[in-house]
Design a protein that fits this description.
It is a single chain. This protein has 508 residues and is mainly beta. It has a domain of 105 residues: Immunoglobulin-like, CATH 2.60.40. Helix content is 4%, strand content 42%. β31 and β32 form a beta hairpin. It is elongated. It starts with 13 loop residues before the first strand and ends with a strand.
């Protein structure tokens, strides 16, 4: 530690005057706010925060002896706060909530360890905080260094999931991500109200006020740290300040650079690099869908029209370290499954894939889009639960899931390789009921394969070596450069044995 960082004793947290608070009162504030002109959040001294870059921000650490709720029972989850900086310049008001009374946590640079000459010390006394995180229960010896959920930047939040590793993020709302007019909007959580858990078996309740140019909202997060990961149950009430062309409910943001299906297009020493490898959907008709992610050459939006969806999410199915080979734990990144708790009605799951040539950029977005229209003055309410786990919370047992997608040159072994225009696809499935399948020698499984263009040929279904997997392979003969949508699943007679594999092939 820098010798000028130390203080004999961190100062006690300072609070504003207490006032009555409830979720209903927050809803009314959001309703009133939507009727007023939009005002951007407070950005104290941009000339200072712009100089708090990644390196400078890394030297600013919260003094854990002075966490919010550190005075509670040893099973409480203490709260630490993030300092403002170059990438998080907006001030967010933080409140302690106990017994229906809220008190604002007032900012002080003395809450943080930082060099005496840090540029951050020039910020005014009302600078505020950028976000917060929940540390592990104080009954753990490592609680000062280990946290499990963080809210930071716009309406973003994320958790460590089941394998103690941050990865993809969620947002409160997405607005006009790929709208035909105007740029995407990023509404902000401008106020938080944090109610402590009585014990580490109980939930931490977080209320948040959302504000943006086109929308306001009141949010209630019920955050549970469970043995298998983290769950965040969300109740929100949204008020539209303006017409919204594309509203994204329960949005997820992730990164996919390359994987087993398109590694040939990338120049990197690792076999795969991604936070998530596919979009899973359990639609209202009961169909299970797996759509492997792509890194396209242009922005691609895919829509999966549905009614009353049972759930969807971005998953990291490949948990084999040998598929990644580096030290940043891609094999441990969380999967996030969204479980509707209220009726989502009619709409579609949107998947947006953005080109990237680096792993530092989040280029994958998924969310639910209501059928709409989303008009000024509308009030919308949603309830849903996010499961931050290693896998889906309710994996299918009646159909096997996709385990791998591989793409290469088409053709048959021992024959001349064809020129461009024929691609080979190999899709592997595993799990019940395939892993207990006992076929007579004279019986074969059938592959149902459809394509929006081109010709499918050389279809072959077989078990995969000594594993319990089954594989379907086929060639696709195509012309031109337009994307081609593919669908495949395995059947035994009239019985569907696997989830539906959907894939968008981009000829290159």
């Amino acid at each position: 530690m820098h010798p000028q960082q130390a203080l004999a004793k961190p100062p006690s947290l300072r609070f504003g005057q207490p006032f009555a608070f409830s979720f209903d009162s927050l809803i009314e504030r959001a309703r009133k706010l939507a009727a007023e002109p939009y005002k951007s959040p407070y950005k104290p001294m941009p000339e200072v925060t712009s100089r708090i870059d990644y390196e400078v921000h890394g030297q600013i650490k919260w003094r854990t002896d002075n966490c919010l709720f550190v005075d509670g029972p040893p099973t409480t989850y203490p709260v630490t706060f993030f300092h403002l900086g170059q990438f998080f310049p907006k001030s967010v008001k933080m409140h302690e909530l106990r017994g229906g009374q809220a008190r604002e946590v007032l900012y002080s640079p003395d809450y943080f360890q930082m060099p005496a000459d840090s540029i951050a010390r020039k910020l005014p006394s009302d600078a505020g905080f950028a976000g917060f995180r929940l540390q592990e229960s104080m009954k753990r010896g490592d609680w000062r260094t280990q946290d499990w959920i963080a809210f930071l930047g716009a309406s973003y939040f994320r958790t460590i999931g089941a394998l103690n590793q941050y990865g993809l993020s969620a947002r409160g709302i997405a607005v006009n991500t790929t709208a035909s007019k105007g740029p995407e909007e990023f509404p902000d959580f401008t106020e938080f109200y944090i109610e402590p858990a009585a014990t580490d078996k109980d939930a931490v309740i977080v209320h948040a006020l959302l504000d943006g140019p086109s929308i306001t909202g009141a949010y209630k997060f019920t955050c549970h740290r469970i043995k298998t990961g983290v769950t965040t149950e969300i109740s929100n009430v949204l008020f539209l300040r303006a017409d919204i062309e594309q509203l994204g409910v329960a949005p997820l943001t992730s990164m996919y650079w390359f994987g087993e299906n398109d590694k040939g297009y990338r120049a990197d020493w690792r076999p795969e690099v991604h936070d998530s490898d596919g979009l899973a959907i359990w639609n209202g008709a009961g169909e299970r869908i797996w759509r492997p992610l792509n890194n396209p050459t242009r922005v691609v939006t895919s829509s999966f029209v549905d009614k009353h969806p049972k759930g969807f999410g971005l998953l990291q199915r490949d948990r084999n370290y040998e598929r990644y080979l580096d030290g940043v734990n891609y094999d441990k990144r969380p999967s996030v499954w969204i479980e509707p708790l209220s009726d989502f009605g009619e709409g579609s799951v949107k998947l947006i894939e953005i080109p990237t040539d680096d792993e530092i950029h989040d280029n994958i977005v998924a969310f639910w889009t209501p059928a709409g229209p989303n008009k000024k003055g509308s009030e919308l309410r949603y309830r849903y639960r996010l499961h931050w786990l290693a896998d889906e919370p309710t994996p299918a047992t009646n159909v096997s899931h996709v385990a791998a997608t591989r793409v290469g040159r088409g053709g048959e072994p021992g024959k001349p390789r064809p020129p461009r225009g024929i691609a080979k696809f190999v899709v592997e499935f595993e799990g019940k009921p395939l892993d207990s399948l006992n076929l007579p020698a004279n019986e074969k499984l059938n592959a149902e394969i459809t394509s929006t263009s081109g010709k499918v040929s050389y279809v072959f279904v077989e078990p995969v070596g000594s594993t319990k997997r089954w594989r379907v392979q086929f060639d696709l003969t195509y012309t031109g450069n337009d994307p081609i949508e593919l669908r495949a699943f395995l059947k035994r007679g009239k019985q569907t044995l696997t989830e539906s594999w959907l894939y968008q092939f981009e000829p290159r």
